[in-house]
Structures are given as C-alpha cells and as structure tokens.
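User: Teach me something about this protein's shape.
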Amino acid sequence: MFIGDRGTRVGSRIKGFKKYGGRWKEVIHSEATNVCVTNENLTSKTCIFCFRRLTHPRISVTKNGEVFSRKVKGSFYCTNPLGVSVLSKCAAKSRDSLSALAIGIVGLSTILFGAPLPAFKSHKISKIEAEEYIILTSPSRFEEETGSYAVVLEIFGVGFAIGASMEVFLIKSNYYQMLAASEAKQKLKQLEQEQEDNERLERLKTQSAQ
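Assistant: First, the predicted structure itself:
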C-alpha cells in the first residue's frame, strides 16, 4: 500500500509552522499489508493520463442578486483538448480519488524504476532527465535483468494489468500529442498557403491597376 507523506511529519515545514500529524496511518495499515510512504507532490494537480496541469471547475453562484463564479475545490478537470480523459468525456475527477490513484502510480514507479514519474517532480524537468527515465523504464532493461518484464511486476505484488493499462494510457497520450503536432503543422501550412494566395492576388491587382 502506498500512502502520501502529507500529515506524517515528513518534509519541510509550511511557512515555519510546526509539523502536525504522525505515523499512525502506516502503523495501522502495516498490520494488514506492507506500507510505503511516497512523496505526494503535485498528485492532486496533475492529470494521470496526459500529465498536464489540472484546474478547478467553476460554477455560477447568485448571492444578494449578484452572479459570480466560484471554484469547486473538491474536484479537478483536465483542459487538454487532446487528452485521453477529455476525449473519453471523463475530464472531471474527484480530488481524493485522483490523489489516491496518483500516489499509487508515483509509488509504483519509485519502487520499480527507482525514480518517480517526471511529471510529479517538484522542479522543472529537463530533456536529459526525461531521457534517463525512458531508459530506466525500457522493457529491454528488465528483460536483461530478470528475463521478463512481467516478473518485475509480480515481485512487488502488483498485477500485470496495472502496468499494461499505464502503458496503454501513455501510448494513447503520445499518439494524441503526435496528432496535435501533425494538425498544427497542417494548420501552419494552410496559413502559409493562404498568405501566398493573398500576396499573389495583391500582385495581380497591382498589375491590373497599372
């Protein structure tokens, strides 16, 4: 079981205040299963499908005859139009369930590969760090060390379906990103063509006027 480190007196103090909480969570859960405490940085603010930043939905509220918008802080939704969750019409997620799933994914990545997913790190990720993570998570590396990629997942007591579903989501996300890049190139080519047509039309008008 993976649990976040918030409220366990782990990490830096918030604005110099004392650390509250304790280690009672892992003590209770450890009676039934193995417990791993993982960093929950950005786990409630990052989409687990496209790894883009999430935002709070807003609702219109009327008070004293005035209409204003208010954030719904109990949920998040993805604004990436090419994201898997948006295309599946499941963009809105509950804050608690999203955080719990993200904590599990980050913890699983840390145990299997020795590093959390780059999208959940506290600093901006460089291209070198992204390439290093790709090397760490390559199936060929695990096949050389264990003979099978599935064996690694079996060792830590997780089903192969979890790793397979994560891989499918990553593949879909990469596909939609490539699709977006292709559409952007086509749009740019279309704009360039329109600009050339307009310039040609202007030249024809100038020649006819002369």
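Now, about its shape. The chain is about 50% helix and 10% strand. The first helix runs from residue 24 to 29. If you'd like, I can walk through any region in more detail.
User: That's plenty for now, thanks!
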